[in-house]
Amino acid sequence: MTRAFEDLHVAVLMGGLSAEREVSLTSGEQCAQALERQGVRVSRVDAGRDLANVLSGLIKPDVVLNCLHGAWGEDGCVQGVLETLRIPYSHSGVLASALAMDKNKSKAVLKAAGVKAPGGGLYDRHEVAARHVIEPPYVVKPNAEGSSVGVYLVTEGANRPVAEVGEPGWAYGEQVMVEPYIAGKELAVAVIGYADGPRALTVTDITPTKGFYDYEAKYAPGGSVHVLPAVLPPAVFEAALRQAEAAHVAMGCKGVSRSDFRYDDVKDDLVLLEVNTQPGMTPTSLVPEQAAYAGMSYEDLVRWMVEDASCPR
Question: Which residues are recorded as binding Mg(2+) 2 (predicted)?
Fold first, then answer.
């Protein structure tokens, strides 16, 4: 990037079309304010399907900071638009974004890289609504959504399957991912993709204040308690760091990613659930919290993401 950071015009993409729209609006506004505090000119863009026209209507931004979450903004679609417009953008490219959003395909990549992923597989949603396709306890979730949107936990001994996924209003695809439930700790590891290789920051242990680690637990104030660094056996802590870095590389991620794990401390079993290529940047989000622990302020993190932006084609 040849221009001084303070002279840049940055378009911050936020909102979008997915079920994670409200979280994205919060992430985007936080990032926009952090850039403005550093003297950067910011255009806030609510990214709809007319994104190309909207960006073309601006004085062409030097960089796009992508703060979208979920479908359209995180699955390679927006990335493709930005590459067509030849505008450098933050975070992962088209292929890594599309791959990470598809839980079924990403599992195959992770396993090939030696990273343990959950079992289970894709099932027709009506079949899942009608009967237990695997033995409880298990988790049902969309194959291509994030932030625990549309996720259901079926407990051991449950008589009733997840009828909700068979309802006419279900908006997350005709196939759903069904995985065995992994008891134990919910862990997260942020990775920053520096030029000399990805670097995991630390491990956070997440405890929901009420039951399951769902959408509300992730984003509502007080919805969960974060302990960092997580209190774990040293070998498990190190394994989480190294597996998050390996996943970042295997998926082809760029910029910042976050890997989510479950650790069964009874069976000593560490499993990587998914890789997020557009982690949240809200006041309750894990990545800025881990960055602060590592000595990087929110402003520093946002600046790094802008300076790391590129246009692969």
Answer: 274, 276
